[in-house]
Amino acid sequence: RQKNGMVSSFPIKDNIRLQEYHNAPFSMGILSNDKHIEEVATQLVKQYDVRTPGIETDIGSLSGGNQQKVIVAREFSRRPNRLLIAAQPTRGLDVGSIEFIHKQIVRMRDEGSGVLLVSTELDEILSLSDRIAVMYAGQIIDIVDAASATRDSIGLLMAGIRGDQKAEAS
After folding, report:
1. Are the C-beta atoms of residues 62 and 34 closer than 8 Å to each other?
2. Do residues 58 and 9 make contact, with C-beta atoms less than 8 angstroms apart?
3. How many Cα atoms are found within 13 Å in the side-chain-facing hemisphere of 117?
4. Residue 54: how many CA atoms within 13 Å on its side-chain side?
5. What is the pLDDT of residues 136-154, one digit of tens each?
6. Residue 128: is it exposed, middle or buried by C-beta count within 10 angstroms (0-12/13-18/19+)?
């Protein structure tokens, strides 16, 4: 999040508009629409429960979890979202925030967005995915239906052992 997701010396309101700063309604031609930016930032801070003194606070002074919430709020609020790539979307968040982010991912899927979830959290993948692609040694070695996947079967795939190799090994 700190390397690619935000500008730590910018206030929250400016980090909220990073992806869309040049498009209406964030801008009016070459001028910034500060009123709209502040309204959106205030709404997203409240909606995503970002713990901050205000939208003028530099994002770098927030906790890692609150920084993550600002980034997630910005990306999830962009429209249209035909494809959402969520890489470690809940890293560093508290349990309540994790549940909220999961609900937002499901909402976006239900609204028609394609979602590619990249996570090291196996429980997160099992609970949110329809299909699971497992990589080993830099290559996808299998794609499984999430409904039939188990922690053990995914764990074996993560170790490079496919179902047919498991039988051979025993």
Report:
1. no
2. yes
3. 26
4. 2
5. 999 999 999 999 999 999 9
6. buried
d(CA 4, CA 129): 25
In three-state secondary structure terms, 92 is coil
- Write the DSSP assignment of 143-169 as a string of letters: EEEGGG--HHHHHHHHTT--HHHHHHH
Cα atoms in the Cβ-side hemisphere of radius 13 Å centred on 8: 9
Tokens 């299909």 belong to residue? 131
Strands 114-118 and 27-28: unpaired
Tell me the CA distances in angstroms from 17 to 20, 108, 114, 128, one per residue in order: 5, 20, 23, 28
pLDDT tens, position by position, 124-140: 999 999 999 999 999 99
**Which residues lie closer than 8 Å to 58 by C-beta, 6 or more apart?**
8, 9, 10, 11, 12
Q: What is the pTM of this model?
A: 0.76
For 43: left if phi > 0, alpha if psi spans -120 to 50, otherwise beta; the answer is: alpha
Q: How far is CA 98 from CA 3, 49, 72, 94, in A?
A: 21, 12, 11, 6
Instruction: Give the Cβ contact number of residue 103 at 10 Å.
Output: 10
Structure tokens at 70: 């600002």
